[in-house]
């Protein structure tokens, strides 16, 4: 025995959500149907609207329903620095950390030839155009410190050979507040290689 | 800085789902918008349809888009036994455990005067009608072994005083496969009170 066809289909479709297995999907479906149909209707409406209206910012490619996102429209950001990230979530994390005042460019992924993800798929042609049209002096390659992220950063760097643009990468090292004992070897050795003169202030 | 208004609204509305906090809602919203718009559209469609079409079975009150659910329409179920449960999930759990061949009645909750949940709200009037119209000989009160579940079971029992209907409650005791060491005191003492002659087969 199971639930009625439609209820079963609802549970099935809830599983498109990341980290939602059969049990959680069942709990969600029953919760919406038994306790919060109003919230469910709101979710249907907003999700439908978002899937239709939300696209990429024409300038930085972050997710937005506007043609150009708020950050790109802001006049208080430094136009000479551009930070390349893999996802809008990375962009938000950097903004919340604070301190960075430049612009962004979102790849929505990383190069992955095996999965057929090439330069155009992550908007590198668009990045080229921006570098040509805007007074950008420094490009910060803030892709993830993973094999794919590294490869993508190196590819972008190789494409900019000989351009009058300073390229930089986020510093590798031990995370603040972390205990050396628990830091992985790779990170630790990178931290040694990248060691800085002690300011001692 | 945050995401665009519409993306923020999507994250907000995803929080109607049980167990979904801000971080999970963000992950879900970005996943749907960046990686699975098709799945998102399916979810919108099915959820919308379910919220409109799914109601209660006229006979047992479980969730179904049909007027009478499959189980109630089945001719292979014993019409003389009726099991009262708090939710469709409990009904499914009992069916999956197997062995029970009778009918069901779903309360969709329990009596809770403080929250203004009275007999009609959990369909007890409907239960009365069934008991009057159907050849029911035994009523199994399978509400949860919680204070509210107990109270609800006792209320139903009190309403059926003097009727020629056998009333029963699920057995309390130590869970199968559980270790006594970890069973709570209340359960343990109920297990002693309800001890059975040892069959020794």
From TrEMBL, chains A, B:
The keyword ATP-binding appears for this protein: no
Zinc finger (C4-type): 57-72
Signal peptide: none
Biological process terms in GO annotation: DNA recombination; DNA repair
Keyword Hydrolase recorded: no
GO molecular function: DNA binding; zinc ion binding
Pfam families from the UniProt entry: RecR_C, RecR_HhH, RecR_ZnF, Toprim_4
Domain Toprim per the UniProt entry, residue ranges: 80-175
Alphabetical UniProt keywords: DNA damage, DNA recombination, DNA repair, Metal-binding, Zinc, Zinc-finger
Similarity comment: family membership: Belongs to the RecR family.
Function: May play a role in DNA repair. It seems to be involved in an RecBC-independent recombinational process of DNA repair. It may act with RecF and RecO.
UniProt name for this protein: Recombination protein RecR
Organism from which the protein derives: Bisbaumannia pacifica
Gene behind the chain: recR
